[in-house]
């Protein structure tokens, strides 16, 4: 039983950064601000000769596509993407759907563990808060490692990520031509570096807030009971 408790506790701690990362990805995927920020900052309308209103329609359609609300990722009056781009978008959709499932699974694990922990160990909720703090510490360590790697070479991190999740580009066409393919012109490489930075900052802020609550509540409780 002791081994089972240790494994369950470790899983609970690991689920904290998993939930924070996957939730932030889901928020970014479904936020129109994410797309419009890139369109405006990198002059996508000029680079593609597509007016701003149509770019917003493209973004809305992509959000619906990533959430499996439509089977086509491009609007009917503007057939932008070629076959290899559609293949890559399908792979991206599957990746986002996997992110959603992992998010819900990690949330379920945290909730179930918390309920079982509190039911079996009444009066020891401070230990649960400690587990959250450990999960937050692990999250900050992961962010620091990724940030250091990105500072030295974001391009290499980006390429390795694509090899990891999409495999060899000969099987999954994720290497795109900026002179031919609209997908890379809609979302140029610097856009992804910005999104990675904003995502890391958002996760760090969420982690500090959650960790602060997990530290502050037991601290206040102990001060009042002394």
Give an account of the 3D structure:
The protein is mostly helical. It has one domain (2-225). Helices cover 80% and strands 0% of the residues. The protein contains 8 helices and no strands. Helix 1 packs across helix 5 (83-120), helix 1 (2-29) packs across helix 6 and helix 6 (125-166) runs antiparallel to helix 8. The radius of gyration is 21 Å and the shape is elongated. The mean pLDDT is 88.
Coarse morphology: elongated
Instruction: Give the SSE order as H and E letters.
Output: HHHHHHHH
Measured on Cα atoms, how large is the radius of gyration? Answer: 21 Å
| Low-confidence segments | none
Structural class: mainly alpha
Residue share in helices? over 70%
Element layout with pairings:
Layout: H1 2-29, H2 32-41, H3 44-48, H4 52-66, H5 83-120, H6 125-166, H7 182-186, H8 189-225
Helix pairs in contact: 1-5, 1-6, 1-8, 2-4, 5-6, 6-8
């Amino acid at each position: 039983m002791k081994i089972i408790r240790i494994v369950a506790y470790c899983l609970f701690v690991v689920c904290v950064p998993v939930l924070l990362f996957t939730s932030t990805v889901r928020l970014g995927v479904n936020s129109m601000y994410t797309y419009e920020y890139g369109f405006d900052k990198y002059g996508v309308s000029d680079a593609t000769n597509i007016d701003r209103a149509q770019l917003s329609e493209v973004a809305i359609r992509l959000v619906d596509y990533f959430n499996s609300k439509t089977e086509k990722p491009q609007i009917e009056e503007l057939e932008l993407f070629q076959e290899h781009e559609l293949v890559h978008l399908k792979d991206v959709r599957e990746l986002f759907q996997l992110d959603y499932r992992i998010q819900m699974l990690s949330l379920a694990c945290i909730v179930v563990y918390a309920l079982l922990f509190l039911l079996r160990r009444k009066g020891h909720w401070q230990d649960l808060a400690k587990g959250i703090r450990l999960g937050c510490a692990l999250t900050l360590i992961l962010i620091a490692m990724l940030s250091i790697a990105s500072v030295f070479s974001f391009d290499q991190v980006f390429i390795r990520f694509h090899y990891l999740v999409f495999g060899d580009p000969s099987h999954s066409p994720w290497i795109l031509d900026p002179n031919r393919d609209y997908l890379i012109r809609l979302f140029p490489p610097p856009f992804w570096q910005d999104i990675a930075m904003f995502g890391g900052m958002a996760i760090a802020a969420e982690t500090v807030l959650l960790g602060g609550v997990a530290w502050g509540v037991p601290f206040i409780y102990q001060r009042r009971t002394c």
